[in-house]
Design a protein that fits this description.
Elements lengths: L1 E7 L5 H10 L3 E3 L7 H9 L8 E5 L6 H5 L1 H10 L3 E8 L2 H11 L12 H11 L1 H4 L4 E4 L5 H15 L5 E8 L10 E4 L20 H8 L2 H23 L4 E8 L5 H14 L4 E6 L4
Parallel strand pairs: 1-3, 1-4, 2-3, 4-5, 6-8, 6-9, 7-8
Length: about 280
């Protein structure tokens, strides 16, 4: 049985994620009480479904706080029963959530008399702490559209059935905002910027001319070597800690040249180190 638990902040895209899994022939249930999770998973494990045992469950802050506190123990109990369980947590920054609720005129499940929307969002983050502490993957949907989110959920499904360690390498531009779902962030803005070379301005870090330009710069080579050494030394420790997923973000000013260049070089190096690597260039996408 392959059980995927979808959780996250209201307005972050949980329904989109569940629908994406449903399209992949998952048996999906939304807003299941945490107190019923163990009994439901145990019961459904004993049944045979045409989907081959792929089940997705949505759990959110509408659960009673006392039930959410017990979430880690319930998950450990399911794993002890041999149920393959992965947790995907969706989040977004407060400004994005406020905008989405304002545009859709939906009511936040925790807002009401005496609890304005902004306070409800803060309260929800606190209530979901037992789930975030056990999540296998985070997706920040602040700058993600529906189609990109569906692609990421499909990618998560592919990885959830694989016990191998997976590494996400992502480039981004600081002027477009810092990704909040990264485990490590490296700042490459101190490196020479190809943007100021007229012939390179319209190119990206995947173009040969930009690669040759940065390869000639001693400080760029030193920076890359330092990051490569750091990841090469510490990734085995994360794998040994039974982590199945690690997210690394590298940023430059615009997310077009230096960060892309570094992600491409690191992906090539790590792919030869028996590490499954996924590349994302946020600003180029």
């Amino acid at each position: 049985m392959n059980l995927v638990i979808i959780s996250g902040l209201s307005g972050s895209g949980k329904s989109v994620a569940l629908h994406a899994l449903e399209d992949m022939d998952f048996y999906c249930i939304d807003n299941l009480p945490v107190s019923l999770l163990d009994a439901f998973a145990t019961e459904i494990k004993e049944q045979t479904y045409k989907n081959g045992g792929n089940v997705a469950i949505g759990i959110d802050a509408r659960n009673h706080p006392d039930q959410l506190v017990n979430f880690p123990d319930i998950i450990n109990g399911l794993k002890n029963k041999g149920i393959h369980c992965k947790i995907l947590f969706l989040q977004a920054d407060d400004a994005t959530l406020l905008k989405r609720f304002s545009e859709t005129r939906r009511k936040h499940p925790l807002s009401g008399t005496g609890t304005p929307l902004a306070d409800a969002i803060v309260k929800e983050r606190g209530l979901l702490t037992p789930i975030t502490a056990n999540a296998d993957m985070f997706i920040d949907t602040s700058r993600t559209n529906v189609h990109q989110l569906r692609d990421l959920v499909m990618e998560f499904h592919d990885k959830s059935g694989n016990s191998e360690f997976s590494l996400l390498l992502r480039s981004f531009g600081y002027k477009h905002g810092l990704p909040t779902d990264a485990d490590f962030v490296f700042d490459a803005r101190c490196l020479p910027n190809p943007y100021w070379q007229p012939a390179l301005r319209a190119l990206t870090g995947m173009d040969d001319a930009v690669i040759e330009y940065l390869d000639r710069e001693a400080v760029a080579r030193q920076y890359y070597t330092s990051v490569e050494h750091f990841l090469g030394e510490w990734i085995p420790h994360f794998k040994a800690d039974n982590r199945s997923y690690l997210s690394i973000a590298i940023g430059c000013t615009g997310g077009q040249h230096r960060s892309v260049y570094l992600v491409e070089k690191l992906a090539h190096y790590l792919a030869g180190q028996a590490v499954e690597v996924v590349k994302r260039h946020r600003e180029l996408e």
